[in-house]
Amino acid sequence: MNVSKDFGIVLRKDAVEKKSINLNSIMKEFDFEKYLDESNDLISLGPFFGGDNADECMRSLELLGLVYIDDFLS
Prior knowledge:
The protein has 74 residues and is of the alpha+beta class. The chain has one domain (9-73). It has 3 helices and 4 strands. The protein has helices spanning 13-18, 24-29, 51-63, and strands at residues 9-12, 37-38, 42-45, 72-73. The chain has a 4-stranded antiparallel β-sheet with strand order 2-3-1-4. Strand 2 (37-38) and strand 3 form a beta hairpin. The mean pLDDT is 91.
């Protein structure tokens, strides 16, 4: 799995699906046309342009109902 070394975020796919979260709003907000990478279990987002941008995405993920560490990591 490809993970951005520059402020990347990795999400557990089962957490996203279990909580019925649609990541389209995140993709649009951060101008991503597609995931950086995806496996059967994980979704990789990034690279983000600076720590502040990655922090904004993490806050957005939390507002959608995902929990840092349990559901995603940066």
